[in-house]
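Notebook, bench 3.
Goal today: get a predicted structure for DNA primase from Zongyangia hominis so we can plan the truncation constructs. The sequence was checked against the plasmid map this morning, with no discrepancies at the termini. Length recorded as 211 residues. Pasting the sequence as submitted so the record is complete.
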Amino acid sequence: MSIFEAVKQSVTTRQAAERYGIRVERNGMCRCPFHDDSTPSMKLDRRYYCFGCGATGDVIDFVSRLRGIGSKEAATLLAQDFAIPYEDGTGKMSKPRQQNTDEQNYKHMERYCFRVLLDYYRLLCRWKEDYAPQTPEDGYHPRFGEALQKLPLVEYLLDELLCGDMQARASVVIEYGEEVRKIEQRMAELAAADEAAAQNSGGQYSAADEH
Ligand SMILES: [Zn+2]
């Protein structure tokens, strides 16, 4: 049995949600972690459905979106945390990892968010200087615009991760985990494009600006 089937057969979305810190009411409703939900509008059972934003899927989709990780990673995480044996492709049954995996995974995600956001913050600060309009007639360079637009949010998120309590930090990780992954990917693309541009006799703008 594949890890996906094994996990889906063994764990309900409701069990996973509770395990990963979401408060589920007795009737199976919880506040939706995927939109700004003031009253519980998500129904959790084997699958989940949000009456507010329409988010739906199975337990693997849920954890994948909650943690900002791929389905394979989500399935592996669930298999470990719920001690579900599965075939790992080598024909051997995996040994479920014990001890504090939740906490380790969460800490890992929190550090990851912080690292990426800090890199992005530094990049935006540099853009704000380097691409500032020199004369009033100059239009905004898109990178200057992005710096002005994004800096306040990035500063706020870093502040929450540094100084916020457990709940504040968790909500940054949960709400912005996916976005942080996109930021990391985009910064990697920009760095590669800038490097290529530098090699091609120092063209000033890169293709990645079109994003
Ligand atoms: Zn929702």
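The CA atoms of residues 14 and 96 lie 21 Å apart. The first helix runs from residue 3 to 10.
Flagging this for group meeting.
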